[in-house]
Design brief:
By secondary structure, the protein is mainly α. Helix content is 55%, strand content 0%. It contains 6 helices and no strands. Helix 2 (36-56) packs antiparallel against helix 4 and helix 4 packs antiparallel against helix 5 (106-128). The two termini are 35 Å apart. The model has no long low-confidence stretch (mean pLDDT 77).
């Protein structure tokens, strides 16, 4: 994945996003005799294709975090399904909003539709998950990466552990009385591998040294 590493680049991309997001409806002037809600069908298809293209390019190039396909594999089927259903509901609501804008005009349909969406969405989100922001608020944070005082979009934690297994000698005629230290270490590494591959939090591990 490729991420911006400077404050200026983040600000430029944010401004570009706001310009594109706020002016997509202006292409309706180019498409004469085309209803606003029907134009949104083309817009939603373009957004889907653009997101897929961005994921396969900027989401795959570079060495920042995981690639787009790796994130999809780690997301889980239920998370992908919920994201897809959320997109379906979002696009259906937007079709209704642009239909209202086509009838009542931008100055009436947009403030009422988007305003109600924000209010109802905030209330419904609190009902489903009644947690305040205080639980996730921190007075300060220390980032241990050389970001050059830029915006830190993501930060991976790091933990290094030293594992040691002990064995017990036994005669070859009675191996059940002994314990193989190498076998115990292999079982432990297999359990760590199984946990890391089944984790949904992007856990990555690396065996640095065996001795």
């Amino acid at each position: 994945m490729t991420l911006p590493h400077s404050y200026g680049m983040v600000l430029m991309l944010t401004i570009l996003t706001m310009i594109c997001w706020g002016s997509w409806a202006n292409v309706l002037k180019l498409a004469k005799n085309w209803r606003f809600e029907l134009l949104y069908y083309d817009y939603s298809i373009g957004v889907a294709l653009g997101a897929a293209l961005a994921g396969l390019t900027f989401g795959t190039w570079g060495a920042d975090g995981f690639t787009f396909l790796d994130d999809l594999m780690n997301a889980g089927h239920m998370n992908i399904l919920c994201g897809f259903l959320g997109g379906v509901v979002f696009n259906l609501s937007n079709i209704l909003v642009v239909g209202a804008i086509a009838v009542a005009g931008m100055g009436v349909g947009f403030p009422i539709g988007v305003g109600l969406a924000l209010v109802v969405g905030s209330i419904w989100s609190y009902i489903v998950n009644p947690q305040g922001a205080r639980e996730y608020s921190f007075p300060w944070a220390l980032v241990g990466e050389p970001t050059n005082l830029g915006v830190c979009l993501g930060h991976y934690g790091y933990l290094e552990v030293w594992l040691r297994t002990h064995g017990k000698r036994a005669h070859s005629s009675m191996p059940e009385l002994g314990q193989n230290a190498i076998e115990s270490m292999l079982k432990l590494l297999l359990r760590i591998t199984e946990y890391a591959t089944s984790s949904q939090h992007g856990l990555v591990y690396n065996i640095r040294e065996l001795s």
